[in-house]
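Example 5.3 — SseB family protein
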Amino acid sequence: MTTQEEREPGLSPLERAGTHVAARLSDEHLAEALRDELRSVGNWILGVLNAQPGWDLMKVDLKPQGGRTWLRITEHRADRAVPGTVGPIKPGSPILRRINRLQSLSYRPGRGTWLSTTITVSAEGWPEPSYSFTASHNFDDRPPVLGEEGPYQVGDALEHLEVFPRTEARVPEWLAEMAGEADLPVHVLPPDAEDEAAPAGTVNPRLREAVAGFSASPSEEAMIEVLRQCTAGNLIVDASGSDLVRGTDGQITPDSTIRLQSFAESDGTRSLAAYTAETEARAMFERSGQEGEAVLLRRPAVAVLELVAADEQYDHLVLDAGGASCRIPRRQIEWLLSSPRNDVAKNGLVLGSVPQVLSGMVGADSSLLLGVRALPEASGPQDVEPVWARPEEGQEADTLLLFTSAAEVAALDPTLEIRAAAARDVLRYALGTGAAHVCLNARPPVASFSMEDIREVLLSVEDGADEGPAGSGGQGQGLGDPSDPLNDPLNLSDGSPGAADPATIDPGDFSR
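Solution (predicted structure tokens):
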């Protein structure tokens, strides 16, 4: 059960929830503040570590729960992960203020903030190493048990939402179910709380959020998040200085000469510029000193990626230049575009349109992807198993995960291999696996369907679709069947990081 907060006159959603520092900072200054707090927490970790030299990574899980902040340290050395300290941070420790500030700075009105986080400290160059710090925030999943604090309970979650409220659409399903079982109300913000907090003319709020996250803590995971959000929604490009010829319907005709804003980088490369909000684009136009009015065009984000991939003059796509920004290298764009995608279903998820999601899942020309792992003692690419999800912690995994793009697979686990096939063939395969449900994508927004739903929607588009592939006797074929379209590994372009590790990113690719 959810209840919507009443608006107090003159107060924004953020002010009604309590004063968070993030409300008073620009995106650029906010990203800088987040980096400062992350650095402070990372340096504290280095100060309290008791480890022999030579380690590669220290992963520190942090979770506020029950009035305490719990910590778990895991040391990574070569191929070994060694468990370390687990327990609550001592009350009154100065670092608690830094952790609380990191959580508060990460708050977005309506979106919320992280429930738990993992700080990674990387060391390179022993015996006198240099250190770097990254953060992986968990906004939506039920926080894991770290030590003796016990499972994260509904009371912990509701206490979190009192300080960091969300819209109903942003309340995790597991939390809503727990509250419903306990007959407890979940207080939520009005649906427009996110829109009110976004800059005027924001055309892609989820991508904007991902770009801000990358700017605050550049990492492989943050880049993957940006890439997966680029597969839906729109972007703004600056076409000022173009010779535009419009037809009688007002649309730009092929007779136009379009010149798009781009930047010469200090390393001799060139970046095409695109923006998630009109205000950002106009601010950069004014900063350039050009005369006249800015000419801004709205284009699908995927179309902008395709433009960069098709035009060799561009080495990068820079998003939201001049503020909290992200520069995507060409090779990452080529990797994303080289694999099949299901943009119809992905956009349906973003829009919250179940009919559009289903339409994309059964379209005659649609594709779906699976993430797979090699079986023990695998002898070939056919010896793999798909990834599954558990409905709740401790229960048997009965939900087969399907994906709309390679970036969605990598967002779950960048070490997964990828299989892609015609969407209807993937759904037929799913019918034969014994799954109770399928879930489209593993990171929000997602959609889950029962196998009866899948059977019915297949029947609605083709006769006999519920019988599975020819010769299967009504059961979907296994991944190891030679005729199974999921049997062959996905071929990626030469410009990609490679099929074995599709999400590897050079530290040099990170730019703000």
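Remark. Residues 242 and 258 are 5 Å apart (CA to CA).
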